[in-house]
Amino acid sequence: MSKKNGKALKSLATADRDAILKNAASKVRDYVSLLEEQIEQLSAIGLALSKEKDMPILLEMILEEAKRITNCDGRTLYMMEDDEQLKFEIVRTDSLNFHMGGTSGEEVPFYPVKLYLEDGKSNHSMIAAYAGLTGETINIPDAYKAEGFDFSGTKMFDEKTGYRSTSFLTVPLKNHLDEIIGVIQLLNAQDPGTGKVIPFSEDA
Question: 28 and 120, same structural domain?
Answer without folding.
Answer: no
